[in-house]
Design the sequence.
């Protein structure tokens, strides 16, 4: 693990509650798509965030969902807004992309868990992988959607890939799929047995998805999520 100082290159709003942060690291480092970093608030206060960018990207991208003025995540946003540099520790996490596998890939995330799978599908797109890839992203409502067209463009570069955004409570303009994201995936996919499955979202969601997917043929040994270390 490396401790690296990063220059704050940019912070922008993706939605009312989600911020995109681009950090310029002061030195080179390696990580595997799907790993995360610790944002160092102090020696005793280090906060984990998935790395949303490919290892080949110039900047480290974070997507931070911040709700409430003094929330855990908004404190990080406030630190970023008031600083020119920040310190991070990386890489961390064992739920990274298994590059040597030849199995089809299922990436499924809820909300800002999207940042975890984004790093992987960006990398797979750069590699022009021949492995089949299915990307599911679940969102509470249409106001929570961001970068859908950009995501579709990246995934279109993978020869055998699909991007399926799913909204729980759509408005009248939504033309995509509706419902709970993992339930939509269960309707679309006959059996999860052949897949390497990568999951991100609330811990209770991830636990429920694991159980439901195992009941439909999924192999728990080929399911990966940082949440599994805590549930």
Sequence:
């Amino acid at each position: 693990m490396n401790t690296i100082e990063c220059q704050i290159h940019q912070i922008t709003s993706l939605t009312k509650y989600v911020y995109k942060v681009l950090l310029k690291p002061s030195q080179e480092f390696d990580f595997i798509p799907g790993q995360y970093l610790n944002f160092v608030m102090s020696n005793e206060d280090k906060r984990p965030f998935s790395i949303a960018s490919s290892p080949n990207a110039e900047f480290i991208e974070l997507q931070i969902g911040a709700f409430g003025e003094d929330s855990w995540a908004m404190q990080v946003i406030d630190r970023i807004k008031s600083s020119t540099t920040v310190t991070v520790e990386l890489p961390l996490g064992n739920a990274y992309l298994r590059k040597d596998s030849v199995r089809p890939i299922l990436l499924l995330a809820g909300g800002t868990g999207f940042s975890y799978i984004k790093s992987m599908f960006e990398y797979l797109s750069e590699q022009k992988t021949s492995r089949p890839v299915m990307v599911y992203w679940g969102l509470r409502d249409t106001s929570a959607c961001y970068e859908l067209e950009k995501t579709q463009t990246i995934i279109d570069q993978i020869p055998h890939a699909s991007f399926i955004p799913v909204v729980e409570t759509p408005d009248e303009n939504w033309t995509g799929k509706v419902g709970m994201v993992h339930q939509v995936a269960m309707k679309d996919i006959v059996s999860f047995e052949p897949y390497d499955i990568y999951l991100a979202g609330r811990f209770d969601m991830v636990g429920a998805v694991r159980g439901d997917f195992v009941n439909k043929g999924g192999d728990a040994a080929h399911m990966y999520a940082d949440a599994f270390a805590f549930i």
Observations:
- The chain has a mean pLDDT of 96.
- The chain has two domains: 2-92, 105-229.
- Helices lie at 72-81, 114-127, 148-155, 181-188, 203-215.
- DSSP finds five helices and twelve strands in the chain.
